[in-house]
């Protein structure tokens, strides 16, 4: 049975503008569409929730209109918030510009999610069967990084902890980052983030170095490669390149979050890591065919996608590798 996902991260309000291309300096563009949506850690939580996990949020939401908007979004996805709202700040926001090639550019403004203390986190309690997740964003904020690192270090040894360093990993003080990496059960990152932590090298060398030199307690490392899929290395030295799925991408925003949420959800059900990675690749592939960062599919949609793909890749009774 799947346990809870206890998300100790940040959620913000995304203001999403769709444009044909980024404006040149000093020029202006008119967006083809605009949407206000819940973003940040919300996308990962939605992916885990829609694929079977009970999800609770242990970060901070604000007390203004952004916080109210996020609470409504959480409620719509049956995600419980464990901590009281910040009495002094509203939640932050992020402007996301999505270009016609499905790439995205962000500008963010931190809010209540950037301030966290152990006292604020007192209501956040974990139990056997829970999985804990944190991201680099919360560790990058001076007002939350030390409390979060302390809380992570104090986790019981039998609680799996999953970490996504995110694109802001370079902004995390190395002493703080090393403390968190030392407690990781699973690390999920892309190649750029892996290289920021472990130095240059090919994907196999980086994954091996992450496990041997940076994440000594980890069961494995996932290095995501977008549409190409991901590379998985386990602590026992076994590795696999898990190919992605060819789809017509409309919006890549939130694909990495969807991948992590689906991967953790699958692992929590006892699915082996390589199979869980394929499941996560399918979830991410489906998500990019839809608009919006929180466009994660549910388990039924993922299973149907995988089943259809398996049928399509069988030629004369022999299953062909994707």
TrEMBL record:
* One Pfam family it belongs to: PfkB
- Signal sequence residues: none
Q: Which UniProt keywords apply?
A: Kinase, Transferase
- Here the segments flagged for biased composition (Basic and acidic residues) are 306-322
Q: Which GO terms describe its molecular function?
A: kinase activity
> What is the superkingdom listed in this entry's lineage?
Bacteria
Domain called Carbohydrate kinase PfkB: residue spans: 5-295
Q: For the region Disordered, give the residue spans.
A: 290-322
An example of a Gene Ontology cellular component annotation for this protein is: cytosol
Q: What InterPro entries is this protein classified in?
A: Carboh/pur_kinase_PfkB_CS (IPR002173), PfkB_dom (IPR011611), Ribokinase-like (IPR029056)
In terms of PANTHER family, this protein maps to: SUGAR KINASE, SULFOFRUCTOSE KINASE
Protein name per UniProt: PfkB domain-containing protein
Species of provenance: Mesorhizobium amorphae CCNWGS0123
Q: What is the lineage of its organism?
A: Bacteria, Pseudomonadati, Pseudomonadota, Alphaproteobacteria, Hyphomicrobiales
């Amino acid at each position: 049975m799947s346990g809870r996902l206890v998300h100790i991260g940040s959620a913000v309000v995304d203001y999403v503008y769709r444009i044909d291309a980024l404006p040149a300096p000093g020029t202006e563009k008119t967006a083809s569409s605009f949407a206000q949506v819940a973003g940040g850690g919300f996308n990962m939580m939605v992916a885990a929730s829609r694929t079977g996990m009970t999800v609770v949020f242990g970060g901070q939401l604000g007390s203004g209109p952004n916080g109210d908007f996020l609470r409504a979004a959480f409620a719509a996805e049956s995600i419980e918030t464990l901590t009281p709202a910040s009495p002094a700040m509203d939640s932050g926001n992020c402007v996301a510009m999505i270009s016609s090639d499905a790439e995205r550019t962000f500008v963010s403004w931190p809010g209540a999610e950037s301030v966290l203390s152990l006292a604020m986190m007192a209501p956040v309690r974990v139990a056997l069967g829970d999985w804990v997740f944190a991201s680099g964003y919360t560790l990058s904020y001076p007002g939350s990084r030390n409390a979060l690192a302390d809380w992570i270090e104090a986790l019981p040894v039998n609680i799996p902890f999953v970490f996504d360093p995110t694109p802001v990993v370079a902004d995390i003080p190395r002493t703080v980052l090393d403390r968190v990496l030392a407690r990781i059960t699973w690390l999920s990152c892309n190649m750029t983030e892996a290289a920021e932590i472990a130095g240059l090298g090919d994907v196999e060398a980086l994954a091996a170095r992450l496990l041997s030199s940076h994440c000594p307690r980890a069961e494995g490392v996932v290095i995501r490669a977008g549409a190409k899929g991901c590379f998985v290395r386990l602590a026992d030295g076994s590795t696999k390149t898990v190919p992605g799925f060819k789809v017509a991408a409309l919006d890549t925003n939130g694909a990495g979050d969807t991948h992590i949420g689906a991967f953790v959800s699958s692992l929590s059900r006892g699915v082996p890591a390589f199979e869980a990675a394929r499941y996560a690749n399918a979830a991410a592939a489906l998500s990019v065919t839809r608009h919006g960062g929180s466009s994660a599919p549910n388990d039924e949609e993922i299973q149907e996608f995988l089943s259809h793909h398996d049928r399509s890749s069988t030629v004369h009774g022999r299953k062909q590798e994707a």
